[in-house]
Amino acid sequence: MNGIEVNRYNQSNPEDSEATTNIVKMTSIKGGETKIIHIYVDGPGGKCGWQTLTAGTALQISVISTSGLNYPIHLITV
């Protein structure tokens, strides 16, 4: 997210300045399959590079394949 890997996987409660996701680190997604991924961000930012999120903040999400290819997802506003 925004060029920084999430801090913890398979977690829904981030600690201060963390971002977590409900997926496990090596989640398989087959071609044509739909997968809902939740990302949780908390804290004022700083030590991990996260900034305070307010209405209208843009996030860039990328999915990286096992072969290392990067697939950026559209910007999402919160």
Summarize the structure.
The chain is mainly beta and 78 residues long. It contains no helices and seven strands.
Describe it.
The protein has no helices and seven strands. The two termini are 13 Å apart. The chain is 0% helix and 23% strand. Strands 1-2-3 form a three-stranded mixed β-sheet, with no helix packed on it. A two-stranded antiparallel ribbon has the order 4-7. Strands 5-6 form a two-stranded antiparallel sheet. The model has no long low-confidence stretch (mean pLDDT 75). It has one domain. A hairpin with a 5-residue loop joins strand 5 and strand 6.
Rg (C-alpha, Å): 13 Å
* Overall outline: globular
User: What's the overall average pLDDT, rounded?
Assistant: 75
Total separate domains = 1
Question: Span from first to last CA?
Answer: 13 Å
DSSP strand (E) fraction? 15-25%
Helical amount: under 10%
The number of helical elements comes to 0
Number of beta-strand segments = 7
Spatial sequence of strands, sheet with the most strands:
1-2-3
- Backbone structural class: mainly beta
Order of helices and strands: EEEEEEE
Residue runs with pLDDT of under 50 for 5 or more positions: none
> Main beta sheet: strand number and arrangement?
3 strands, mixed
